[in-house]
Give the backbone structure.
Amino acid sequence: MKISALLSVVLLLLPGGKAAVRPSSRPAAVNHTEMADRVRAELLYSWQAYERYAWGHDELKPLSRTTRDWYGEPLYMTPVDSLDTLLLLGFKDEAEKAKALIVDKLSFDKDVPVKNFEVTIRLLGGLLSSYQMTGDPRLLRLAEDLGKRLLPVFNSPTGMPYMYVNLKTGKTSGAHSNPAEIGTLLLEFGTLSKLTKKPVFFDKAKNAVVQLYKRRSKIGLVGEEIDVETGQWISRASHVGGGIDSYYEYLLKCSRLFGDPDCASMWRESVRALNQRLADNVPTGLWYGQVDMETGQRTATEWGALHAFLPAVLALGGDLGRARRLQASSYKMWNLHGIEPEVLDYRTMQVKEPGYPLRPEIMESAYYLYHSTKDPRYLEMGRTFFGGLVAHCRTAAGYTVLKDVTTHEKGDLMPSYFLAETLKYLYLLFAPDKTLDLDHVVFNTEAHPLRRTW
Ligand code: DMJ
């Protein structure tokens, strides 16, 4: 017997010493129930801080205990974005109070230009999922009213949406847009069509995606900025980060939610181009960097908190191999400073943009991967993410963004998606499978679960 094996036997035979002496690099197993309870408690803590210091406003600024309203007058971003999370986590009284505020007080009859993409994913998505969860027709009426007010965005010469629309007058602006803002509307507008039996919403949003897809380059990629009036590309930078990210997500999810064959084929073609042109195998791991959309030449080696959605979408599309490797890379990024930066140069592992705005994508990917593989490493990742949030972002009044992950200096905002997405995905990662059947639900990009009830 080798000496090391002999030593193991001796150590194992020592009374009561088994767990204490066995050399192991494996962390202790994650206790699902305990972690789910801890996340649930932090959701309640964050919601109560919003209730106490920012009730009736869009978002809480936790350090100053003041509020942020996106457009002067509040549109209840946090209550609408949080309602389905409160319902899902079983906070009935809090959900009832949030719903009462929304149905009694929320009006979209406001003379303000709003960003179509943000209002669609947060408010339209939130109203639709909450309607599906509660059956309260007032939520669907609000969703339809909002949908009608947003429709003028599609009145461009190409059918691709303008970025802004005035909710009262319908005046549009912002002809320079990007794939994410053009292609991340179909789940919400499509669901609205199905639930109201009015095809116009689905048709306009689908046409926008098709128009964008038609303008892809010969090598199958899209750029970062496009003019929706002329259809000409303004930026040829192609990547999976902000401004493009959820365009790809919705191609796949549209095929799943609506069974739409066009979306399915656009997804297949697009992901092939991504795998072929953006994937970058370097000594630090597998990453998806930036290239020129026409030539495929690499133009940057950046990955960040927004890019980290991709493992979730690859896993949902069935490519667990790439999804796992990419998530391992994202985890390296997280562990550099105990919390992830907005942008990293993955070749040098130097932080390029140091902020952390409480983003959910890395947790979302851990959740999808755990759902598909049941590999405990994703639970361990979740525990690490949660620990980082508690250690660095918790304040005496909810959670806040970081200005710099290298110094952990805090900023002053609790974005509505922290309750809609970040804590929801963390909770679902640890909660029993029956909490939500991922095989029968499609999450919009703001984590609002949509169900195919039609
Ligand atoms: C959210 O509003 C959505 O997830 C969007 O797709 C990207 N940005 C934030 C979260 O990071």
Q: What stands out?
A: The pocket of 1-deoxymannojirimycin is lined by residues 121, 246, 359-360, 417, 421, 445-446 (CB under 6 Å). The chain is about 50% helix and 15% strand. The longest strand covers residues 279-282.
